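We give this protein:

***
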Amino acid sequence: MLGVDPAILDEHGPVSEETVLAMASGVRRALGADVGIATTGAAGPGPHGGKPAGTAFVAVDIGDGAPRVGELRAGGSRDEVRAAARDEALSLAAEVIEALPAR
């Protein structure tokens, strides 16, 4: 649905900076939106995609050719890891949007 190139998944895995950047770009394109936000990670209880539980990547793409990405390591339950990734993605999106020039 997001058009992530299978070669990205093959080379970098589902939990990676490269994958989340492709996902955010795909969200923006698929929805015809100005902003695309994506998360991917290993929420636990075990590792996923070769990354330990608690690892997550978030990305924001505004179509300017310079998407932003963040990586985090969160502890706690699966729900807590997912909440931390969500919060990080929204925080990154707010930073990116606030930095845009006024229209």
